[in-house]
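Job type: complex structure
Entries:
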Amino acid sequence: MIFKQLIRPQIKLCLRVFRKGLSTKPQWEIITGVCVERLPVVTPPLNDIQKKYKEFLWTIEVEKSLKSDHEIRHENDKIQAELLKSDSQDVDLDAVSKITAQDLEDAATEELSQFKFGSIETEADKKGDKTTTDRCLQRHLVLVAPVKLGTDVRTILPQGKWQEGETLRQTAERVLEEHCGKDLKVQFLSNAPCGFYKYKYPQGSRTDDCIGAKVFFYYANYQGGAVDGKEKKFNWLTRNELKELLPPKYNKSVQEFLIEESW
Amino acid sequence: MLKTLWCACHLAGNHVLSLSTPTAINRNIFTAPTLQFKITEQLCAEPLKKKKKMDPAIIKAREDRRRKKLEKQIRRLEKNARQLKPIDELEIPLNVVDQIGKRKRPDVKLSEQEVEARALLQKEWSRYKRAEYMSTVAQIDRIMGAQKRALDMLYEESEDLYNEAVMPDLKLIPYSIKGPVATPPIKNYDSPDGEYIDVSKKWIN
């Protein structure tokens, strides 16, 4: 029994090797595609229910809180002002502060209104420039590059052929460097591919031992640096832009392993 | 009991010893069959000595000394035990504790409508969060499925590449990531209040 269990995987392996040797299955080229994604820099906008609930939590927070130093001071100021008005004798003039809490609050509000937060809409957004990562800060961006496929050039995820003797992960790293230069810093998240796409070459360019390509996608996070591609056109695209640009089937395979944006 | 047995053996000893060999002619004076118990070991035995009684005071003193020693050790351990890191944020400042009556807000009286509206909002929120959770789980499933499919395809294509691909990526750890922020950073911003330095006390664990 134990022997049977031990031998079973071996038999399976032998059978598979045997079958592989026998069959004249069409050969596919192994290609590695790299999906470099810039994660959102800024949190996505709140939707209606989120806004409502946030407000609700805030009111509860205030209701349950104790009064702050500032509020106490403000109340004291009010009492002092009343006393001053009624001209009572026992007003300690030293105790009446020159700067009231209200004054402080006004000054702070003034300062806040002077301050300008960083704008969510960047220069690139205004110009419609898609070649930089400094755009659509609230969304995920995916790098696409012009890739030569046979005779024509298509804009898809950077990809390249696997070479004998390297792992797919190494292929992915090499392919990315070949396409984008050494400045681009990314972090690959796994040794394993995260997605798969298969396509057949057009009839003319098919050969006997190779009828198509199997693309294994690797996922990496953008960390910094710029893409070195003055003459080439690299674009950082949002999910919707990807959908418009990529061929439908390819797009489906790519979006299959990406986080969906629900807004 | 032991003592009586010993005496009995002693008395019967000579006869039984001399006659127990099988070659000897049975000239036993006893009519009963030969006794089958061994005698030599029993002969070596002797009545147990009476246990010396100890003075209860001495025992108590010893016990006390032992306990004191243990207590001392425990005390030493406790003293050296690592101090727990206090959580400053959870400790109410003393001046606030003093003025707690003054700082209390008047109780809010909610109208019935308001209470109802709040309850409804809570319910709606939990429904929303549930839907969000379900979609998150579905997304994770989908992404894992995509990876599994890719790995299956890779296995079909080349087993070696598959084995390489399923190896853990050791360079990934330690991994750190800075989450999304509420507003984008301002480029070349010079803080008017100077640089932020964390002065909170460092605790060595």
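Summary: The first helix of chain A runs from residue 2 to 22. Strands of chain A lie at 28-38, 141-149, 152-156, 159-161, 185-188, 195-200, 212-224, 235-237.
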